Structure formats: structure tokens, C-alpha cells
């Protein structure tokens, strides 16, 4: 799989795949400043909750690219990147980790601070890569050979650092000889499904069929969908799931047709501090994404537009949450509380290695 970015040691910069140009062009752009990284995140040149977190972490490192830079530049970069997108929790988790490094080494010399920040960013990237493989393995416990699985938006390698989240079972299944067929929602209004998911699945050799979002109910009604699997931008403590707009509708359709609805996400996407989906801030994007999609005017001037980037699927519509630490099943408040306790215990237990 193609990752969303590479750290370029020699040039001390990030080389980032511009996802807004896919699938027509695979262009790598140099990112040398936190400001450039913030622009890339806002403009969706890099997208997908895990990838945004990784990109933001490296964006913080770039604050120390100039010889005269120091801790205050790092702090300003963290605040700048924190304001780029409000919904995906991975962004804030990554920035908290980078801020902790800053606090621990703010009185160290510049080279030490720089190397520690870079090491933390690399750790965030590597942890996500390993999480993707585990997500794929757990997903294959639920998605069996021959199943036809509908997915929404894009949740593959360039949305993460390797296998992806909801696409991870497809990719790992290909490696292991498990045949899964994908129904790919185009995902309005920015078409991440048709532009990126379809592109990645073709590259991986996974059988896939592209449909418009409005066709999902029809293919379910025909009995052609065995399961739905989606990613997440934030999972609340009660199991409510914020994901790309249209996800909630798919969950309702899946319930109506007796189809399991799975959410696949690393534990870094779980926001234990947010009680429910009601507290999740939903990003609203530029109306021109709808009225002038990809430069072509498709709506009359002056029409009012509502363009939320995400919706919230209630926990009661989710059959299972696949995490890199195992499969969670209802009741989700209890399952998530147990997972949180496990993670906190591990964090305070001294390593024996």
C-alpha cells in the first residue's frame, strides 16, 4: 500500500501525496513548514483520521527546521495545527503527545528537542502501521471468504500509514488468500470512494464495484451485500460513531435489511472523554464543494447550502467495533470502559523488557 507521506531525512521535510489529485495524478509535494502542513490538512491534501494525526505530528517537527527556531515556534505550530479540523480525534491525540515531548525537553538544546520530537512523530506513524495490520486480522474474524462488503468514503493506506482501517481486511485478506468483494460508495460530495478507495482496491487486486451513494439501498434490497464496514473519525465513550457524512444512513439501511454494520478503527480514534455523539463537533465545509464540485457549477447561484463533513451513527446501530486491541460488542459503554481500564493499566505498568 502507498502511505500518505514520507519523512525526508536528508531534506528535513515531509513528502506528501496530494490526495486531491487522485486518481488522475500521483503528485508528491514537499512540506517544509507547519503552515504548509496546516494548509494541506485543511485542503484535504492529506485526509483520513490516522493520517491527519501523523501529518500533524511531523508538522510540529518542521517548526524546528530553521536554525533560529526554538520551543516557542514548536508551541505555535501545535496551536496552528490544532485549529485545522475539529472532528477527527487522532489529530488532537497526536498533538498532545508532541506537546508532552515539548514540555519534557523545552529546556534542552535545540538538537535534542528536535530529535525527540522527530522520534515521537515516527513512533505515532509506526504504531498506526501496526494497528492497521491488527485491524485487518480482527476484521477477517468477521468478514469471511466470499463475502460482498459495502464500504463508505476512504479508509485505506493513504488515510493511515499502511493497511488502513476499514480497508485493512480487504488488503490483508488478499495477502492471505481470503476473497472479499467490495461495493464502493462514491461518497459525495468529494468522491473519496470513487477517487481513492476504488483506486487503492484496483492497485491491490481486490474485486470492487463502484456505486453512487444513493444506490446502496438498492444493492442491499437485491441481497448483494453481506456486510457493511466503515471507518471512524471519532468514537465516543458510549459507542456513538462520527464518520464521513452518509455513514448514518448506511447504518439505518443495514439494520432495515438485516445486514451487520461494522466500524473499524484503532484505539487512537476512541475519545473516552466525550460521553456521546451529541458532544462531537461536526465540521462544516465550503458550500462550493457542493455547488461547484471539482470546478464545475452544478447548482444555481444564491442557493442555500448545508455541507456537514460528518454525521453520527448511534451505538445501537453498530453490530461490532473492530479495534487493534480486539473486537468490541454491545453494550458499548461497558466494553469501552473495560478497554480504557486495560489501556490505563498498561500505561502505568513498568516494562519488563
From TrEMBL:
One of its GO terms (biological process) is L-methionine salvage from methylthioadenosine. GO terms for molecular function: S-methyl-5-thioribose-1-phosphate isomerase activity; translation initiation factor activity. Its EC number is 5.3.1.23. InterPro entries: IF-2B-related, IF-M1Pi, IF_2B-like_C, Initiation_fac_2B_a/b/d, M1Pi_N, NagB/RpiA_transferase-like. The record marks 153 as: Transition state stabilizer. PANTHER family: METHYLTHIORIBOSE-1-PHOSPHATE ISOMERASE. Transmembrane segments: none annotated. Pathway: Amino-acid biosynthesis; L-methionine biosynthesis via salvage pathway; L-methionine from S-methyl-5-thio-alpha-D-ribose 1-phosphate: step 1/6. Signal peptide: none annotated. It comes from the Bacteria. The active site is at 233 (proton donor). Keywords: Amino-acid biosynthesis, Initiation factor, Isomerase, Methionine biosynthesis, Protein biosynthesis. Belongs to the EIF-2B alpha/beta/delta subunits family. MtnA subfamily. It is an enzyme of class 5 (isomerase). Catalyzes the interconversion of methylthioribose-1-phosphate (MTR-1-P) into methylthioribulose-1-phosphate (MTRu-1-P). It holds the Pfam family IF-2B. This is Methylthioribose-1-phosphate isomerase. It catalyses: 5-(methylsulfanyl)-alpha-D-ribose 1-phosphate = 5-(methylsulfanyl)-D-ribulose 1-phosphate. NCBIfam families: eIF-2B_rel, PRK05720.1, salvage_mtnA. It comes from Rhodothermus marinus (strain ATCC 43812 / DSM 4252 / R-10) (Rhodothermus obamensis). Substrate binds at residues 47-49, 85, 192, 243-244.
Amino acid at each position: 500500500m502507498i502511505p500518505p507521506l514520507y519523512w525526508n531525512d536528508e531534506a528535513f521535510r515531509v513528502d506528501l501525496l496530494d490526495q486531491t489529485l487522485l486518481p488522475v495524478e500521483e503528485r508528491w509535494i514537499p512540506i517544509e513548514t507547519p503552515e504548509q502542513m496546516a494548509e494541506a490538512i485543511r485542503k484535504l491534501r492529506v485526509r483520513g483520521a490516522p493520517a491527519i494525526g501523523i501529518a500533524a505530528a511531523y508538522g510540529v517537527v518542521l517548526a524546528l527546521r530553521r536554525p533560529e527556531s526554538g520551543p516557542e515556534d514548536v508551541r505555535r505550530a501545535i496551536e496552528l495545527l490544532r485549529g485545522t479540523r475539529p472532528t477527527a480525534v487522532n489529530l488532537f491525540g497526536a498533538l498532545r503527545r508532541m506537546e508532552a515531548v515539548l514540555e519534557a525537553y523545552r529546556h534542552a538544546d535545540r538538537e535534542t528537542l528536535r530529535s525527540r520530537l522527530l522520534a515521537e512523530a515516527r513512533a505515532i506513524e509506526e504504531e498506526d502501521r501496526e494497528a492497521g495490520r491488527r485491524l485487518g486480522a480482527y476484521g477477517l474474524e468477521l468478514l469471511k471468504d466470499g463475502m460482498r462488503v459495502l464500504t463508505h468514503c476512504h479508509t485505506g493506506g493513504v488515510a493511515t500509514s499502511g493497511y488502513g482501517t476499514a480497508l485493512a481486511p480487504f488488503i490483508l485478506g488478499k495477502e492471505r488468500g481470503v476473497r472479499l468483494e467490495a461495493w464502493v460508495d462514491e461518497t459525495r460530495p468529494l468522491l473519496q470512494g470513487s477517487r481513492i478507495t476504488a483506486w487503492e482496491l484496483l492497485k491491490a487486486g481486490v474485486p470492487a464495484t463502484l456505486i453512487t451513494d444513493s444506490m446502496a439501498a438498492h444493492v442491499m434490497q437485491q441481497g448483494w451485500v453481506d456486510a457493511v464496514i466503515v471507518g471512524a473519525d471519532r468514537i465516543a465513550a458510549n459507542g456513538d460513531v462520527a464518520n464521513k457524512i452518509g455513514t448514518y444512513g448506511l447504518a439505518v439501511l443495514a439494520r432495515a435489511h438485516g445486514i451487520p454494520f461494522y466500524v473499524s478503527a484503532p484505539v487512537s480514534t476512541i475519545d473516552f472523554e466525550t460521553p456521546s455523539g451529541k458532544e462531537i463537533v461536526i465540521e462544516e465545509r465550503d458550500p462550493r464543494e457542493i455547488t461547484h464540485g471539482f470546478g464545475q457549477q452544478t447548482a444555481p447561484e444564491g442557493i442555500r447550502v448545508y455541507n456537514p463533513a460528518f454525521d453520527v451513527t448511534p451505538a445501537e446501530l453498530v453490530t461490532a467495533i473492530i479495534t487493534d486491541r480486539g473486537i468490541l460488542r454491545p453494550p458499548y459503554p461497558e466494553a469501552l470502559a473495560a478497554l480504557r481500564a486495560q489501556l490505563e493499566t498498561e500505561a502505568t505498568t513498568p516494562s519488563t523488557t
